[in-house]
Amino acid sequence: MAQLSYRDAVARGIAQEMRRDDRVVLVGEDVAGAGGVFKTTVGLLDEFGPTRVIDTPISEQAILGAAMGAAMTGLRPVAEIMFSDFFAVCWDIVVNQIAKTRYMTGGQVTLPLVIKTGNGGGLRFGAQHSQSIENWAMAVPGLKVVTPSTPEDVVGLMAAAIRQDDPVIFCEHKGLYAMKAEVPDGEIVDTLGTAKVRRAGSDATILSLGMMMPRALKAAEDLATRGIEAEVIDLRSLVPLDTRTILASVAKTGRLFTVEENPQLLGWGAEIAAIVANEAFWDLDGPIERITTPHIPLPSADSLEDLVMPSAESVARTIEKALQS
Amino acid sequence: MSPIGAVSSSRRGTVPGAGEPGHRPRQIHSPRVRRMAADRGIAPDTLVGTGHRGRVTPTDVTTAGEVAARVARSPSAGQRESLDPAARHTPAATGSASVTVDVTRQVAADLLPVVLAAAVSALRHTAVGTAIDVEVTRHLASGVERRRVSDAHDLGVDGVRKALSRHEIETERSEHSNGARLSVHDVAALGLHTVAPVHSPGDVAALGVGAPVERPRVVRADGGWGVGVSTTVTLTLVWPGDVDDALDGPRLLALIRDRLAPPPRKETT
Fold this sequence. Notes:
The structure holds two protein chains of two kinds.
Chain A: E1 2-5, H1 6-20, E2 24-28, H2 44-48, E3 53-55, H3 60-72, E4 76-83, H4 91-98, H5 101-104, E5 114-119, H6 134-138, E6 144-146, H7 151-162, E7 168-173, E8 180-183, E9 196-199, E10 204-208, H8 212-224, E11 230-234, E12 237-239, H9 243-253, E13 256-263, H10 268-279, E14 289-293, H11 302-308, H12 312-323
Parallel strand pairs in A: 2-3, 2-4, 4-5, 5-7, 6-7, 10-11, 10-13, 13-14
Antiparallel strand pairs in A: 1-8, 6-12, 9-11
Helix pairs in contact in A: 1-7, 3-4, 8-12, 9-10
Chain B: H1 31-39, H2 58-73, H3 85-88, E1 94-102, H4 111-126, E2 132-140, E3 143-149, H5 157-166, E4 180-186, E5 203-209, E6 213-221, E7 224-240, H6 249-260
Parallel strand pairs in B: 2-4, 4-5
Antiparallel strand pairs in B: 1-7, 2-3, 5-7, 6-7
Helix pairs in contact in B: 1-2, 4-5, 4-6
């Protein structure tokens, strides 16, 4: 057991799988010599060499085109899109090619491809480098969507993603890269589609992922001092989604809150709210409440970005008010 | 503002007509409350909510279910046909207690609504979340007159007074109640000072109300002692007392007393 940062956990997870399977390769801008713009691939070039850790030109379409071709011809590539915002320039290959090939070939061609990407805000990167795009990706049939919130989960979920035969969008939250936590030694392999209950509670269920998870946890601790015991669930994976854990928690608490780092309109919480309304309507003791950013691009100014992102204080305030009404 | 014009959260839960004169807000129950109430055979509209603005909470349903189960378990609770024939003639064990209350500050001529409101308030305190019906039997020289005050938990003194004057006289005693039922026997018209009421099946308790009596009372006034007149009434409470978790009758009677004549505040230094 050792302290590991979230960013180092990315490299450890990839390295673990590259040691295990020669077919695993890494491609992306500056992932080799520079160790990644966010330093999430440091040491991989030295250990695995330039034939398996490959720098690419500045072209997202080229990165994903090369990765898709590699996946179709027997490799298991990990491709990096530096900022998740840049998925917008390569949606055609992601949505129309990568996501659909296995279906359109009747399962004859699989796409064992992980697209890792720096996701989310809070670092003053502005409107074009701060978005959380899980809800874009989860709307596309054929893609799996993962967002870990702890270093241990980064290692385990990265391993699980690489071992998938389907394409996985692996969202690394940029605001968590510096976070450190204990990570067990040895091989770690997690399971996609499994949520974790980070804190047990009986009065409300809070769903979160990525950087919103520690904020939800802090909000729950604050609420506990005022007699409200909230259960905090870290979703970790949106596709596949662990509906069993969600529904069991709602059956216990009767109230559901989502904490989302995306605008409310069609955010991931909207889909989960619909699922809970369908499957657990008779367990609900009040409206489902979604805590999101407003329907605006994320601002660059630190004060404005802090204002629009859900904070532990705003989460606690919203939940307390809802439970008292 | 929502980008697609969704209803803002501030408008949630409003009911058409709310705020209009004479409008009584319709209780809106959450799906969870409705399911829990259905599971327990309780009509949710009969529940008294302890939540924000009287909202019925899951805890209210749980409490009401426990009270209903307690009443149902009582040997005297409306199960006469299912009892062993020999048991029919065995008087159910009951508890009873009496108290004489100073009601000088009340209007003696119209005391019954005040006593009923106090009793309902006290009963709510001991059985929160339960609807309360009151069945009043007035014993007159010409016979008995029965009136029923349904949903008494929603009424104050004036509401009880209006209900007593409005409701039709019932010739038969009702065997059904949506919630906790309190039987009240008023013997004031006969000039009797006290009565030990019969506890009937389905009642959580029975309360006997005697005639008001004026008594001399030593009072302290203007730094000296004197003799004044106070009006008192004797209340007698009977409750099923042979089950382990029976109603706490003495506490209920004390609560009724304290609502009619609040104990003097302790002097503090």
